[in-house]
């Protein structure tokens, strides 16, 4: 009894005003909806619906939100990209991923779906088979290809333009017109560069091609019209930047390009095809464009959404009707990111997504003429946004002067001072970044009473080309120094209790967690790694990165000489880790094979370091199964609590009964 009372007293002092148990179920259950788009007439909504190991697509009737039809792909397949072709038919892109943290890998297959009946048909892709007798007049073409939508041709209810990548040694991309009912295809352009994406004009003519050859050098080409020759606009090997075309001005006289810069964030520039004159039309001081804003009912670019210290929008013309529309929406949802996901064809009704660090996301239908917004649906309606943790931006300079930015999540009701803290470096690592949006893990850890530090170390996306390039061959070196510098910043600011800090991450973040414990003895009181990579030379002969044609080039460019990587591999440095460790992995992980974790655990045991582990042979890169996620996060919270004194998981309740703080 005395021990229980003492433990309660200690926890009350460490975590004032916080519950002594975390409802894990509220943080691990799937979101109710993902992306949402309105049909051309406004009669329907299409939405992705996440499942345990798949993502389905559902059609809702806008008059009453009733489900009209749906399609569910097989396990590990996900409807990731979808577009309304007309009011009764959609085109769906499919991706595969083998774990909840895995990045979706597009299969290059395109499906057609009837909104009313839910009937789906594979039109293009490597698994297309010829139709049997009597099934259709024009059989679909059987070909080993991948295809991706380039233009949904708003003025054409039957056809779209797609980019077709042949599976061959000389895979120069074709632009084809695809009939979404018959599956018939006709070539309209051939790219001068491999693995190209196409950009079309308002008439649906292919005008830009962007891609990279086997040397991974990006090139951008332009042509004046169908049938004319391609002209080189940008060569990365000459300009030291990547450029992509995002569309044309209303009069068609200017093209807009997203352009990397030699330093600082990317810019949006106008480019005159006649004079080749460039002008910067938008550039944030800190971050890259997150989403391009288009005029409702059109594909004309008019601005961009930026996710920096606060979400913000910028427009080519700040006095335009487009800017005024966004300003009125932003005034209605202060402190949140606002983005129009889709609109009716006439542009009168728009679907608006609203989200923030404390709000997973709500959708509204806005009638522009009536200036009226109606609430539609929430991604996670069981989350009480009034009681979620606070997410605050921060910035600092790394020891070598590189500007760093990140986010600090502070428990609800806390004064943000002298807190136990979990440092959580993101996975990836290259091109991935934390953007201050609602983060389930960070919110769950904050509910346990911890401050959560997420820093966008060098190599992270969103801060321009130079910030990314600074990570070359810096695994376990300057990239790790950035995490250390951010941790020490939090201590110096009085946020973190210097004696109560742990480091935890997944994938690359798990690698960083182990290297943090290796390189900074005394800074962290424990370290936890989830589906991590710990043996860098192994990445050159195991896993799906080295399986890809460009994978070995990527590994050598970014990690370095495999003969030298043993020196920055945690599996070889286990004797330097003097704090408790928790490891978890899945047996079907193709990105970070389970052998990484098994070897790390064995090395720690040989060194006499306390280590706990959890393995699921049927899981991949991030656990899918709800019961497995419950157990994993329950064990993680218990592990952290033993070093930091935070709350542990409450007894499990059915997922539909959980209510998050």
What do you see in this structure?
- With 661 residues, this protein is an alpha+beta fold.
- The strands form nine sheets. It has an eight-stranded mixed beta sheet with strand order 29-30-32-31-33-34-35-36, sandwiched between helices. Strands 2-3-4-5 form a four-stranded antiparallel beta sheet, with no helix packed on it. The protein has a four-stranded antiparallel beta sheet with strand order 6-7-8-9, with no helix packed on it.
- A hairpin with a 5-residue loop joins strand 12 (172-179) and strand 13.
- It is globular and about 70 Å long.
- The protein starts with a helix and ends in a 12-residue tail after the last strand.
- 48% of the residues are buried.
Summarize the structure.
The protein has 661 residues and is of the alpha+beta class. It has twelve helices and 37 strands.
